[in-house]
Design brief:
Elements (H helix, E strand, L loop, with lengths): L9 E6 L5 H10 L3 E5 L7 H9 L4 E4 L2 E2 L5 H14 L4 E6 L12 H14 L7 E3 L4 H10 L2 E2 L6 H14 L4 E2 L2 E5 L4 H12 L6 H9 L13 H7 E2 L3 H13 L5 E6 L3 H12 L6
Helix pairs in contact: 1-2, 1-11, 3-4, 5-6, 6-10, 10-11
Amino acid sequence: MTQAADFGTFGVWRGAALLDAPFARRVEALGYGTLWIGGSPSGDLGIVEELLDATEAIVIATGIVNIWKDDAVTVARSFRRIDEHHPGRFVLGIGSGHREATAERVRPLASLAAYLDVLDAEGVGPDQRLLAALGDRTLALAAERSLGAHPYLTVPAHTRHARAVMDAARPGALLAPEQKIAIADDADAARATARAYLKRYFRLENYVGALVRHGVDESQFEGGGSDDLIDAVASNPTVDAGVAGLRAHLDAGADHVSAQALGDDPLGALELLAESLELPPRR
């Protein structure tokens, strides 16, 4: 059974379209415990298999498979195929996506629960899966019916709140938020990189709503995001600032934090972070 400790304290988040075997091997060699596949990978989970085949021990997790994109039976069959060859190294992250992008997204909590019911019936148990979660009810469902939650685009105040909600539902559930990091020569350059990346996310109600509920004023989203908002969700511009951003989530109650390195040289940034975090390299 995959336990929270198997994820390691720090991981890496990267969109599926930007991942390949050399990237995964380098992330593993640097000592990160988990590689998260973002961007709603397809239900055949071919990218998961490719990355697992290319590495030796790192955990691969989807962050996330969109439940409206592929049915649970298809995804479960893909999971079983992969787990047979790489037992204990793949964790299936699922989520309900965004109302703005998915016309079918109605009653998302009930739909997630129904999806989990099918996964149960198909042999993908709670210890093999987790949920993308921002709101309280989804966080509680994640704790009750999976390893835990993988919040995306949050601040430490949300992590602190999520920890309390999840502990009330099931103490010890995994809480694994993502944190963006933009390393550059100066803060203005780092913020420009982060603003360009965050533009589409700041149009999505569930992300904006979660940030507002946890201390961000709505006015801070104007003009692509205030400096304070950008600095909070995309730590910059130095390695020390990136490390502080990751550790802030741990201090707030996270078990594991995944770093999403923004910019033209993500591996270079991840190498600098790994050195500063004193990760045990696998060379």
